[in-house]
Design a protein that fits this description.
Blueprint (H helix, E strand, L loop, with lengths): L1 E3 L7 E5 L2 E5 L7 H4 L18 H6 L10 E3 L21 E4 H13 L7 H6 L5 E4 L3 E5 L2 E5 L8 E6 L5 E4 L8 H5 L9 H14 L5 E4 L6 H4 L9
Parallel strand pairs: 3-4, 4-5, 5-6, 10-11
Antiparallel strand pairs: 1-2, 2-3, 7-8, 8-9, 9-10
The structure holds zinc ion.
Length: 233
């Protein structure tokens, strides 16, 4: 059963009987200081203590120590920015192999873009686990699905709850609901072929009964879904 929490800009906690999965970790709390010039491109309009991951977890009675798996939909700055909390705790850090390779490759080329060295350096030597190929079932009912499109190793999460509902957490593969109709992503597009194929796959899956899309950057997200400490079922 997933619990949706307000980890800016993105994130969700999946409370599973076999372990707790944190999907994405939001932005670095010191972003303005540590991001460098990219701050001009992605300025955060609001970040308070409430937006710290520790405080979001506290709202549902948890600490970073209580998390069993950290899954990255991709490693951009608004998704990997507070993952440093989990490195020394030796929590499994899980990403698609192509994503970790691409992010570290860009860092070495000095073309970091929407990735941040501060995030990646902090996770160097962590308990990384990568998967290759299309689908990896992390726990029963929790599938990590490769889509690419936005970044070379972008994944989405397909979660089936005990109540029999399905949720597709799109990460940044789909930023906004408008993309579903337009099938266009503007300058946030990585690979058009992967994007169209992945988008059609998501649209097809969303036709299944009791299936919902959770689009992290949708400004109307809070109207559609409950905020922590309430949860999706
Ligand atoms: Zn992104």
């Amino acid at each position: 059963m997933p619990i949706w929490t307000d980890i800016p800009v993105t994130g969700a906690l999946i409370e599973h009987t076999d372990g707790r999965i944190l999907m994405d970790t939001g932005s670095n709390p010191e972003a303005k200081k540590v991001w460098g010039p990219v701050w001009e491109v992605f300025p955060m309009t609001k970040f308070t203590d409430e937006n710290r991951l520790e405080n979001q977890l506290k709202m549902i009675g948890l600490k970073p120590e209580d998390i069993d798996y950290v899954v990255f939909t991709h490693l951009h700055l608004d998704h990997a920015g507070q993952a440093y909390l989990f490195k020394d705790l030796k929590k499994p850090l899980i990403a698609h192999k192509r994503e970790l390779m691409w992010a570290t490759y860009l860092m070495y080329l000095g073309k970091i873009g929407a990735y941040q060295s501060v995030d990646l350096e902090a996770l160097k030597g962590g308990e990384w686990f990568t998967f290759d190929g299309e689908i990896f079932e992390l726990l029963p009912g929790v599938e990590l699905m490769f889509v690419g499109g936005h970044t070379p190793g972008s994944i989405i999460l397909k979660v089936t709850t005990e109540a029999g509902n399905h949720y597709l957490f799109t990460g940044d593969f789909v930023h906004l609901p408008e993309e579903l109709e337009r099938e266009s992503k503007g300058w946030l597009l990585g690979d058009i072929d992967e994007y169209i194929t992945g988008l059609r796959k998501i649209k097809l899956l969303s036709k299944r009964p009791r299936t919902n899309l959770v689009i992290s950057h949708d400004p109307k997200l809070w109207e559609k879904y409950p905020k922590a400490p309430k949860s999706l079922r």
